[in-house]
Amino acid sequence: MKIFNYMETYDYEQLVFCQDEQSGLKAIIAIHDTTLGPALGGTRMWTYKTEEEAIEDALRLARGMTYKNAAAGLDLGGGKTVIIGDPKKDKNPEMFRAFGRYVQGLNGRYITAEDVGTTEEDMDLIYTETDYVTGTSGAKSSGNPSPVTAFGVYKGVKAAAKEAFGDDSLEGKTIAVQGVGNVAYNLCEHLHKEGAKLVVTDINKEAVQRAVEAFDAEAVDPDDIYDVDCDIYSPCALGAVINDDTIKRLKAKVIAGSANNQLQESRHGDILFEKGIVYAPDYVINSGGVINVADELHGYNQKRALNKVKTIYDTLLRVFEISKRDQIPSYIAADRMAEERIAAKKQSRSQFLLNEHHILSRR
Ligand SMILES: NC(=O)c1ccc[n+]([C@@H]2O[C@H](COP(=O)([O-])OP(=O)(O)OC[C@H]3O[C@@H](n4cnc5c(N)ncnc54)[C@H](O)[C@@H]3O)[C@@H](O)[C@H]2O)c1
Ligand SMILES: CC(C)C[C@H](N)C(=O)O
What we know:
Elements (H helix, E strand, L loop, with lengths): L2 H7 L4 E7 L4 E9 L5 E2 L2 E4 L4 H21 L5 E8 L8 H13 L4 E2 L8 H8 L18 H20 L8 E5 L3 H12 L3 E5 L3 H11 L2 E2 L12 E4 L8 H6 L4 E2 L10 H9 L3 E2 L2 H4 L2 H8 L6 H9 L1 H15 L3 H17 L17
Parallel strand pairs: 3-5, 3-6, 4-5, 7-8, 7-10, 8-9, 10-11, 11-12
Antiparallel strand pairs: 1-2, 2-5
Helix pairs in contact: 2-14, 3-4, 5-6, 5-11, 5-13, 6-7, 11-12, 13-14
The structure holds nicotinamide-adenine-dinucleotide and leucine.
Leucine binds next to α11.
C-alpha cells in the first residue's frame, strides 16, 4: 500500500503510529478531516493479520467518521484508532494508559471513545492520561451508547417506512432483524412496542432465545434471514451484507439497520436504487451513538442528546428527498449532504487546532 498516495486520494490529514514496548501497545490513530472540529471516533482493538490491514482499517473507519459526524450535524471531524491485538488476551492497563498519553499528545485534535473490542473500563484507563476521551464510567459520562444508537435506528426505520409506504407506522409490519446484540436487542424492544412482527437471527443461540421470549419473535437460521418474506430488513450485525448474492434474495422494500459498511461495494447501493428499495445509509441511521457521546463535550445532558438523536428521522427524510430530486442513490445523497457541510466550512477554516475559546479547553 502506498500510504501517501492513499492519503492524498481521500484527503487525509494525519496518521499516527504509537508504539510502547513495555505494555505491547501498537496503535494507529488516523485523522481524516478536522474542518468541522476535532476528530471524534472510537478505538477498535482487533487481531489484524498484517500491519497493512490495520492501517487500511484505521484510514477507512476514520473517513467514515468524518461523514457520520458531518451528516449528523455535529461540529466534529472524523478519526479512528485501531489497536493491534486480541481484546480477549492482549489487554493490560498500561497499554491503555500509554495510548492515552499519545492521545494527549495530539492536544485535542482527536477525541476517542469505545468501539469493537474496547470497553468503558478501557476508556477509564485512557482518562487517567488525557481529557480527550468520552464514554468513561464517570458520573459526567454518557454511558453505554448502544441503547441510544438503537433509539436512533428505530427513528430511522420509521423515516424509511414513511418513504416506502407513505406512513411511518410499523404496526403489523414484518421486520427481519439480523443480529440481536447490544443495539438490535434494544431496537427490537421499540419495534415490538409499536406492534411490528419480528423475525430474528443471530449466530449466538442464547441471544436469539432472549429475543424470541421477550418479543414473541420468530427465529430463523443466520443464512435464511435474506429469504424472509418481510417489509423491512434490518441488518444489525456485520458489514458487506448487501452484495450480489443477498440482493437477489431480499424481498423487503426497506433496508434500515445499525451495521456499519452495509454495502459490499458502492454499486450495490446503485442496484438498490434501481430496484426501488429504500435504503437508509448506514452512517446516517446509526449515528445515535456518536451523537450521544459528542454531547459529553458540552457537559452531558441526556434529554438534549436524545432530542438530537431524534433528528435522524428528518435527516433521513432529507436524504431521500435529495435522492429523488437528483435521481441518485440514497448513499450518494448522504455523502453529498456531508460533503456540502464540510465544503461550506472549509471556506473559512481547515484543520482543527485547539485554542482557549473552544469548548474542549473547558474539559
Ligand atoms: N454499539 C453502537 O452504539 C453502534 C454504533 C454504531 C454502529 N454500530 C454497529 O452496529 C452493529 C451491531 O453493534 P452491537 O454493538 O450491537 O454489536 P454486538 O456485538 O453486541 O452485536 C452484534 C450481534 O451480531 C451477531 N452476529 C455476528 N455475526 C453474525 C451473523 N453472521 N449472522 C447473524 N448474527 C451475527 C453477534 O453474535 C452479536 O449478537 C455493528 O455493525 C456495529 O459496528 C454499533
Ligand atoms: C464514537 C463511537 C460511539 C462511534 C461508534 N462506534 C460508531 O461506529 O458510530
